[in-house]
Amino acid sequence: MKHTIETKTYYFDTDAEGVVYYANYLKWMEMGRTELLESKGINLIELREKEGLVFPVKNLSISYHAPAKLYDAVIIETELEGIKGVRFPFKQRILKKQGQILLVEGTLELAAVDRASLKPKRLPDYLKKLDLKN
Amino acid sequence: MKHTIETKTYYFDTDAEGVVYYANYLKWMEMGRTELLESKGINLIELREKEGLVFPVKNLSISYHAPAKLYDAVIIETELEGIKGVRFPFKQRILKKQGQILLVEGTLELAAVDRASLKPKRLPDYLKKLDLKN
Amino acid sequence: MKHTIETKTYYFDTDAEGVVYYANYLKWMEMGRTELLESKGINLIELREKEGLVFPVKNLSISYHAPAKLYDAVIIETELEGIKGVRFPFKQRILKKQGQILLVEGTLELAAVDRASLKPKRLPDYLKKLDLKN
Amino acid sequence: MKHTIETKTYYFDTDAEGVVYYANYLKWMEMGRTELLESKGINLIELREKEGLVFPVKNLSISYHAPAKLYDAVIIETELEGIKGVRFPFKQRILKKQGQILLVEGTLELAAVDRASLKPKRLPDYLKKLDLKN
After folding, report:
1. ipTM tops 0.85
2. Residues of C with CB under 8 A from a CB of D
3. Which residues are CB-contacts of C120 (< 8 A; sequence separation ≥ 6)?
4. Residue A132 has pLDDT above 80, yes or no
5. Which residue positions in chain D have pLDDT lower than 70?
6. Which terminus has fewer CB within 10 Å in chain D: N or C?
7. Is B15 considered catalytic here?
């Protein structure tokens, strides 16, 4: 199931070509993943502060089809294909709201790691039982 | 041939886990590609302002092995594997200087496009003749 | 009259001390000013593309009282004290939503300038007549 | 005494007006202050990790005179006017290297605080004895 949020392009997102800078789409993708997980009832602050569990990106693959421009309304679509051990594979797409034009799409894999050691860390049981695909 | 530059991590590169934010490595990668091209005698400002030629990233694939931390000296290695039509395929690696530890590596493909239309655009002849691999 | 928007802190806003990086509050302030002007019926895209009119910050003075942290909900308050010639003086405050704690406050002055020359530029009449204080 | 570093504008510094985004000059100012302190023999990593001492900005006042553009070489000048208790008052200026044109200038005050509590914290004696003005 696709989770969807909306945002808008400000000057701080753009670069001298009048378009969103290629690294800044990754910020919107962080927003999308965060809001998907929160919408599933996952309390990221609690996992971080009580369990010492955080979720850095381990690898990503992104295609840039068309650019967002200043003050464009954009849609960030996020899908999580279940949890594989400590890995969270996401699919994300960014669309221009007007005309629903695909701008950027990518796959990103996150890992559950211990906040102090940055080593892989088992998930709490309740998290493994969540239905994150739907 | 590998082109190499060095930089250093400041607070503005880092995030609340005490490491460089995943999107910020892409800024260092822009620095590395820019300096490689300039070192080959390519005048990016002139190409942009006189020829209307710019080089956005079309796709990228990145693996994160270990994080850079505050004030770490880092090395950015950049290789360009020739030019394929209007496409510029790069390999880039970021290492922690102390111990030469591999932090991040990726492949990125740029395209020569017209600055106004953002459509693919032929390269000037002198650019095609440059030996960018060595 | 105070104009108010809400946002939330993500990893990309924070730095290695676990708090929002001092320059990133200025991004939230841009969001606040943009949304105030749009709420008054000012079409910033049209002013930019049809009139060549843009509004860079000319000076600012900011005090940092307390930091926003990861995933904090924050409120951005923006006030515009009328227009003085081509100058737009703003007061802005950022509060932590929970407890309404003042985090950052500042005064910022913007100028209407021509997009190409960056020189001061007269405002269109309809803009001068707008009641921006209330 | 003025401390000076040089850097260069990349796409990630710029915005859709083709100039450096107003908040990004503050990143260059962080670079300038960091390098001044390191040049005086202050080990910021050691102060942070062994003494728990960090130096957030408490207030700043900045004037924007002219913008830096893509690939401009810029100079960051930093002066520290001694230490006042736990306060470090800085003057900083950013110039375009070509023509030595003043772009941005400001005063910024930092405070020595405890990393965990963010409360003001006494400086180690050796730091108080340093001649930071010259």
Report:
1. yes
2. 17, 19, 22-24, 26-27, 30, 54, 56-64, 66-67, 115, 118
3. C86, C111, C112, C113, C114
4. no
5. 134
6. C
7. yes
Residue B25, token pair as written in the block: 């490595």
Taking a C-beta distance cutoff of 8 angstroms, is the pair D88, D39 a contact? no
For residue B4, pLDDT beyond 80: yes
Report the candidate in A38, A41, A46 with the shortest Cα–Cα distance to residue A5: A38
Least Cα distance to D114 among D58, D47, D46 occurs for D47
Note the pLDDT tens digit of each residue in B31-89. 999 999 999 999 999 999 999 999 999 999 999 999 999 999 999 999 998 888 899 99
The alpha helices in chain C, defined as continuous H runs, are 25-39, 44-50, 125-129
Verify whether the Cβ–Cβ distance A11 to D21 is below 8 Å: yes
Count of Cβ atoms closer than 10 Å to residue C130 Cβ: 15
**CA dihedral sign of residues C81, C83, C84, C87:** positive
Is residue B126 pLDDT above 90, yes or no?
A: no
Q: In sequence order, which ranges of A3-134 are alpha helices (DSSP H)?
A: 25-39, 44-50, 125-129
- For residue C69, CA distances in Å to A45, A108, B83, C17 come to 11, 25, 45, 9
Q: Which CATH superfamily is domain A3-129 in?
A: Hotdog Thioesterase (3.10.129.10)
Nearest CA in chain C to D48: C17
**In chain D, where are the structural domains located?**
3-129
**Chain C residues with beta carbon closer than 8 angstroms to that of D64:** 56-59
pLDDT at D37: 95
| Residue C56 clears pLDDT 90, i.e. is over it | yes
Mean pLDDT of B5-17: 98
